[in-house]
Amino acid sequence: MAIRRIRDRIQQFNLSQPRDPDLLKAKYAYMHEDKENPFVFFRATCRLFYEDLPITSWFKKAPLVWICGDLHVENFGNYKADNRHVYFDVNDFDEAVLAPCTWEIARLLTSIFVASETFAVEQKISENLCQQFLNAYTQAISEGKAYWMGADTAPQVIEDLLSRKTQVKRRELLEERTVLDQDKQRRSLKIDFKKAQPISDQQRQKVESFMEVFSAQQPNPKFFKLLDVAQRIAGKGSLGIERYVLLVEGKGSPDDNYLLDLKKALPSALAPYIIWEQPKWVSQAERIVSIQKRLQAIPIAFLHSVNIGRDSFVLRELQSTQSPTDRLKIENWDRKLPHSEALMQSLGQVVAWSHLRSSGRQGSAITDQLIDFASKSKWKTETMEYARAYSRQVHQDWHEFSRYS
After folding, report:
1. Residue 342: which residues within 8 A CB-CB, separation 6 or more?
2. pTM
3. Is 205 left (phi over 0), alpha (psi -120 to 50) or beta?
4. How far is CA 160 from CA 156, 349, 378, in A?
5. CA 86 to CA 298: how far, in whole Å?
6. Around Cβ 322, how many Cβ atoms within 10 Å?
7. SS3 category, 325
8. Nearest 5°: phi and psi at 212?
9. Taking Cα atoms as reference points, which of 360, 387, 373 lies closest to residue 104?
């Protein structure tokens, strides 16, 4: 087997970004020790996927669309919007750019194959699930209209997730993430070194100063009064990047407090491989937030692009992501085949609607171009073949990384 310098390539990319060294070590541990490998490895190496992606054939000819950039089966989930209604959609936009639609589809299909092999699902089933996704995607594109998945519009397989998420109360999340001082009736963040860890005095001062200015600019400044802040531990690919969990006053202490997520925005991992002109974004956070607002039917609550000094950050509500009611988890695809097929059909629709919703914006293809492309068959065959082959490469890369880590 040829040595692809996987460890060196991964380390070179991660060391090119400012990351907490201890959390970076934890990221590497997840990548070769986690029981869900090599799917975790795939999730954590988005840059590697695009380094290898050939800019030929349908990977170059396909219409340009706005993509999330890191589409895989666990980057879909439920969230509450500003209107406090729950929606199901793509939920990660750190790598978002303008690129061929087949880039998005190839990564999603590869994730299905990698996940299937990781969890011992037969290949014929994984191929069927990929085909279900492709069929639903092309059918939704051919209809030329973007819809959304909310409580009143989602199919049963998604409605079940939405209904359970609706029942999750903010107080449950507060009890999970904070400690309540019964005497003072005041909450503070729970430092457990699993979801949150302490920050330096300098970091605290930076966040406090920012929130003082930010809250003063809002219609209800008291809502965003900062009560506590800690470093948030979350994600796989972005683990170690500067990120905070904020406890704010909300509608009143202690149980109407809110939690916010403040994450430093870095350039997209796809940037070195993009040959198509991109907008001149004011900041990386503006790129992420602008594209998220284009792709999601209703964006997540409190979504803002903000600047702290020379750095830009994405601010949004922090919502629960720890249970199957919050984001998709891979489980028993082969034992619940009708359910799994319906799920893949829903994912295909959601992705198609995001491409349609953002069509004709700053260089992206118009709807008629997408409809014409969806009617062709060769790109589907080539994309499926590539995803199948690259999933095998992922397994080899994971073994190489684990061997030398």
Report:
1. 155, 156, 157
2. 0.90
3. alpha
4. 6, 17, 36
5. 9
6. 10
7. coil
8. -65, -40
9. 387
